[in-house]
Amino acid sequence: MKLTQFSQIEYSRILDLNGARNKGYSQSECENILVAAGATTMQAKNGAYVYLHHGSKISATRRASRSEYEHLLNDFEGREKESKECIQHLENMGFSYGQAKTAVYNYRVKHGLIGK
């Protein structure tokens, strides 16, 4: 099965067609499937990681503005938490991994928690 586009949805589709989650494939086994389908090594590495660690959270069931993310992360006390915890919190609220990662990055930059 060849990739038709290079997106996480496509990587997940290919891995699902190969039964990667059901068969308990490792990171490297998933990477090999994606490389065989036409992804570069780096694309395969990133695509397999997100597939294995964020599985069902690659598509959003919810959207928000920057101010809404700000409010949600403030309520969660995001300034005192690790990035990973904040991302997971937003994912659990229905945001995709990509949305959560970007929102947390912007939040941390705004509050001087990471370089500018």
Strand content range: under 5%
* Quantity of strands, as a count: 0
Unreliable segments of 5+ consecutive residues: none
The assigned structural class equals mainly alpha
Summarize model confidence as the mean pLDDT: 88
Number of helices: 6
Radius of gyration computed on alpha carbons: 16 Å
In total, how many domains does the architecture comprise? 2
What distance separates the N and C termini?
42 Å
Give the helices and strands as they follow along the chain: HHHHHH
Helix content: 55-70%
- Main β-sheet: number of strands, strand sense, barrel status? none
Oligomeric state as shown: single chain
Q: What overall form do the CA principal axes indicate?
A: elongated
List the helices and strands and how they pair.
Layout: H1 8-17, H2 27-36, H3 41-54, H4 66-75, H5 83-92, H6 97-110
Helix pairs in contact: 1-3, 2-3, 5-6
